[in-house]
Amino acid sequence: WIKFSGKEIQEITTLQFQDWTNKSAQDITPIEHLVMNPSADAKMKIIEFADFLCIHCKNAFPKLHTFAKAHPDVQFSFQSFPLDGACNSAIGYSEGTRCYLAKLSLCVGRQDPEKGWKTQEWIFANQRDLTNMESVKTNMKPQIASLGLDEEKLQQCLGDQETHKIITEQAKLGENVGVKGTPTIFINGKKLQGVSLPVLDKIYKE
């Protein structure tokens, strides 16, 4: 890990903020999404495109969630961008696991949004044990039980073609707005280069 001094962090934050300020805003309407603080009056709207087996997405997760939970006037929306051609036309390689995890997050969130966020937290915490479909299905069983979910309803959702369509549409939206890798974060329609609590705080205050 690279450790930066306080001055270096301040300089990096300033550069990230200036880069964000100079970007052109895009009109991005999330597709059926998990959303935290879903107020129409939110002063700051964060949209994240992420892949559940991406280590950088795992690292961004606590920063974005901590920030959104601390600011009720900040809306945070999640969109899946699986690095998997099984549900993302921008990706050549197709395996299926990443798409399945995206569906799992969506389907749990439909039953209970708060449990949807908890499922994302669980996925990121157990990334190393969720590398293929078999390991995902084995490991998710106790997690589903612990959340008290309707398993029959969940399995129906996971196998529904409409669920697959939504994930592909989220990925296509990401491709259309210029997502090249994960995580990609937009704040008020402007792409943010890198994510840290200092830069989120600076954008919020400004």
Describe the 3D structure.
With 206 residues, the protein is of the alpha+beta class. It has eight helices and five strands; from the N terminus they run αββαβαααααββα. Strands 1-3-2-4-5 form a five-stranded mixed sheet. Helix 1 packs across helix 8 and helix 3 packs antiparallel against helix 4. The mean pLDDT is 93.
Number of helices: 8
**Portion of residues in helices?**
40-55%
- Note the gap between the termini: 30 Å
Strand content: 5-15%
Low-confidence stretches: none
**Largest sheet properties:** 5 strands, mixed
Strand order of the largest sheet: 1-3-2-4-5
- From N to C, what is the helix and strand string? HEEHEHHHHHEEH
**Cα radius of gyration in angstroms:** 17 Å
The overall pLDDT average reads 93
The chain-level structural class is alpha+beta
Question: How many strand elements?
Answer: 5
Q: What is the approximate shape?
A: globular
Looking at how many chains there are and whether they match, the oligomeric state comes to single chain
